[in-house]
Amino acid sequence: MIPEKNDSRWKEVVATSKEYPLGALAAKMLLMRVRTMVKLDHSPAKIEEAIGIAHDFFAKNEEMLKGDLDILFEKK
Amino acid sequence: MKTLYTLSEVTELINKGEALLLSGDERILKKLPKGKWIAGTIPYFMSEKGGLLSHNEIQVVKLPAVISDFTIKTYAANELKNIPTDYLSNGFSYIIIPAFSGAHIDFAKDCSTYDGLFDRPLIGWISGFDLADVGKTDAKVINGMTGETTDSKAVVMHLNLPSESYAKLNIINLFKQGDGDTITFKTSGFEMIDCIVNGQEVKFADYITAKKINTQLPLVADYMGEMINVSFQAVDVATGKVNLYAPVFPGIEYRIASPVDDYEKEFSAELTKANIHPLISCNCILNYLYANLEGKKTGHIVGPMTFGEIAYMLLNQTMVYLTIEKK
Predict the structure, then answer these.
(1) Is B64 among the domain residues?
(2) What is the distance in angstroms between the Cα of B312 and the nearest Cα belonging to chain A?
């Protein structure tokens, strides 16, 4: 189950430099994209946009990215 | 495993109805009949014979019979953003883009912003030509279904897999960030004049010259633990321009790579660790040239040595590969 967009852990995922040992290349590149967006513009609107992009990606690909979701949301 | 075929052998495969991904010299590819194939021009290969330059052989990936559902489409630069819309439900997509075309430049700069880009594996490469022919020819791609040959559009084969399988895309990059300066950029681009080194704005060409940087080593960025390269094409102190084989982006920290002492040996070690048997792979012409891979092997990995590799995004000096896995 993917946390809702308003879950505070999403902000840690997209707006910090916390390291996650992700497995999927797509997840690494997507998260790098949204983190870079936020690095260049820290506004709440940009953070919300970044969370939206990341949430949509993981929601659409939940089955394939289960391992990485567990890492991001600390089930591992 | 045989991957290099003569014109008559490939013609026979096409006429039998096999679905093929091809790479080779433009002059030989243009003689092929229409059929279920796409191709990009390049005469450099990593093959069962080792690294080689060949104008009269075609490198072939035969798609397994289980992959019977596919579409082929070409995309002009302004249509590239639609590629993810055409992804198939349980598949992957294979893209070839002509080097130095508008499609190449636009894809490299914008692809990560395409809606849904990362939703299915997108693997591919940038087509090229014999380096002895620089200025005399252009890179091309060919849609074998229609016979369309173009130096301006990308060609993509979108493929669907049986429900019990999935495609997995990954890379092997021997380059790691060195422990030198942190380099950033205020703008994105393939051609940079200014950069910021450890927080101080400097002229990029002057910095490279003053530091005697070995430009055979790429700039490397750390993408959540994955090393992503941007290779140097040329440094012109007179004009102050530094040309790159992929764009740099603002907000990303780059460092010059640590040297790789023996590419062949270190690649083999990585390959042993990864234990992979890809359906598709390609590697970079710069690795072929700088690591003197002519006549050498990169383990059992074969594929075109290209003007740029694509694993979702444009990469440099990197081996990209795709495997078919069981769910």
Answers:
(1) yes
(2) 7
Q: How confident is the model at residue B268 (pLDDT cuts 50, 70, 90)?
A: confident
Q: Is residue B176 part of a domain?
A: no
**Which domain range does residue B21 map to?**
4-171+265-326
ipTM value, please give it.
0.95
Per residue in A55-75, pLDDT (tens digit) is 999 999 999 999 999 999 976
* B227 & B88 share domain: no
**Shared domain check, B137 and B37:** yes
A36/B251 CB distance under 8 A: yes
* Domain boundary, last residue among B256, B273, B288: B256
> How close, in Å, is residue B278 to chain A by CA atoms?
16
CA B247, B110, B249 angle in degrees (round to 5)?
35
Q: For residue B311, which residues of chain A lie inside 8 Å, CB to CB?
A: 25
Average pLDDT, chain B: 96
Judgement on whether residues B189 and B236 belong to the same structural domain of the protein: yes
Structure-derived torsion over alpha carbons of residues B327, A63, A10, B169, reported in degrees to the nearest 10: 40
User: Shortest Cα distance from B326 to chain A (angstroms)?
Assistant: 12
Q: Which residues lie closer than 8 Å to B241 by C-beta, 6 or more apart? A: B191, B192, B193, B205, B234
Q: Does A60 contact B119 at a Cβ distance shorter than 8 Å?
A: yes
Minimal C-alpha gap between A16 and chain B (Å): 12
Decide if B32 is inside a domain.
yes
In a domain, B177, yes or no: no
Nearest-10 crossing angle of helices A8-15, A44-60: 100
pLDDT tens-digit map of B153-164: 999 999 999 999
List the one residue out of B228, B232, B187, B179 whose CA is nearest residue B205.
B232
Whether chain B has a CB inside 8 Å of the CB on A50: the answer is: no
Interface of B with A (CB under 8 A): 112-113, 116, 118-119, 121, 166, 169-171, 223-226, 249-252, 311-313
Domain boundary among B205, B231, B256: B256
Interface probe for B, chosen from A25, A55, A60, A64 (most Cβ of B below 10 Å), is A25
- DSSP symbol at B180: S
**B325, β-bridge pairs:** B166
B223 and B251 both lie in a single domain? yes
Residues B159 and B79 in one domain: yes
